[in-house]
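Run folding on both entries below.
>entry_1
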Amino acid sequence: MAEPNVEEAPRPGPENTYLLIGHDAAEAVLSAAWRGGRLAHGWLFTGGEGIGKATLAYRFARAILSGAIDAPAPPELPGLAAPAAGGGPAAGGGGGAGGAAAARRGGARGGGAPRPKVGADDAAARRIAAGAQPGLKVIRRSVNPDTGKMRGEIVVGDVRDAMKFLNRTATGGGWRIVIVDPVDEMNRNAANALLKSLEEPPGKCLFLLINHVSGAVLPTIRSRCQVLALPALGPEDLRRVLSAAAPDLAADEAVLELAGGSPGRAIRLLEADAGALESRIGAILAAPEEAGGLQALDLAEQVARGAGATAAFRVVGELLARRTAILARDAGQPATRDAAAALWFEIAERFREAELLNLDRRHTVLKACRDTSSLFHSPGAQGG
């Protein structure tokens, strides 16, 4: 098993991040759906990891729980149409295609109503940042009381605790909001428990589900939510986010390219000094077997312990996987191409499991370096 790591204090998370860049359209859809009385009770925010989906979810939760969104007549039951201004029932409604289309139309008319902004000094915002807001429940991986370590997945007990929250009367008759971050990490039993609440939601209840990989969500959960796809950020928006969230980190073009439009990933790359790690991996792969093995051992020791080790470990896995992906693209022989593609998937899984299950990180790095080096020096490999 891996030795405990000494980690630096993390940067602010989405619960206390107040700036949202690059997702005005998505926020306008939510605001228009709320103000139009057509808010679906379940929303699935999809898109790459680290692009701002959780930040958007917390911003929307803050707006509702603080009252800043200023809805004149929120629906009594989520997803049902509120009375129209003319006195009759609003057309369409619900959380399905009709409600989504209405939300998009509302956002298209000059951006819809002004989107609410709730600052850090707001009382609800302070409670949310402290994890003490009675109207909000966040479902994420929890610590296993038997081992004292973080679980590798969201388990059914985590969801059942949230369901107890939903069965209580909201303070002041207000809204209850559940954020699942991310829904990808729920095991089958947890997903089925969540599905039951999505099928029979209590009144004035809202589910905001964060989803990094679309195939990781049960089709039955997806079908009961309004899907809101968030795009990766463009280069200028990415620079703006980094300037605000990590002003102490200088981003070069190589890191921005590796980040793929994800500020979260860019910050992780910068904190881990991805440029230096990439150079070391290149030296390992270019060196003879014995020298490369010694360099790989030194790299493995670096990312197995000490301050910033987890971020460096993740980046090493991403960089090694990227090397195999490039080899798969450029390989001169089909057999080498297939082997590189298989190794790309295997390395990604190894690093993910090592972190989630607290496996030996040194062994993970050494094996990945050895396997990648062997493939790069095999007949038919090109571009390595």
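>entry_2
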Amino acid sequence: MKRILSLAAGLLIFCTTSHAFRQEAVNVRSEKMDKDVPVTVITPDGYGEKEAYPVVYLLHGYSDNYTSWSKDGVVGGLSDQYGIIFVMPDGGYDSWYFDSVITPEYQYETFVSSELVSYVDSHYKTIADRKGRAIAGLSMGGHGALYLGIRHQDVYGSMGSLSGGVDIRPFPTRWNIATRLGSMEEYPQNWEDNTVINLTHLLEPGSMNIIIDCGTEDFFFAVNCSLHEKLLEAKIPHEFYTRPGHHNWKYWLNAIKYQVLYFNDCFSRE
């Protein structure tokens, strides 16, 4: 993407800084899982001056948590720059954002796309409509963002993946996926039904704004290219970017700037 972004690193609101975004941790009740789930929420400088703000739900990767995206201030800076609320839920160490049929205490599809959205819309000044919501994430969260975005097109209008595990089937013994779906040998249909690349038939041209990004040295690069090809065959419009990079924060903290720029353009068009 040949755009130049002028982005300064943001700091927490109580620091001496030119940025004034507000970052807070809240506990959101999940009735489905019978527990409180920690969530980081960032609101932009001047929050409250407008009636409603768009929201980007930002999902973390495997073994990370609700604080991962907010540690260095990049997301806060983007919140200030574009006037966007960012919501970063804890998705469990290894939930993959499924409603697991194997481990009923893991019901993160329902939590993120229903319970959390309802909470955010009732507690913050949001555009409470799919046209004002995007969902994105990295790695496990990249899978989660596209998985939830495709399955809940009434909730989200835009979705993005950074280095996402968009086809889980080549990795049957990795990252505890089998703990949520059952082993591929015993439950092969669970794996077929719950991998992002097999959900593209649920999309229609133009039904979602889609952006996918993956580094060429990433172990998920091949499956991202395969998803890109499948979307092309189905004539589903989407943005697809690759460039040199590995599966690490250096790549993601750069890539998120382009994804948020894309989402902001989508919000502006709506």
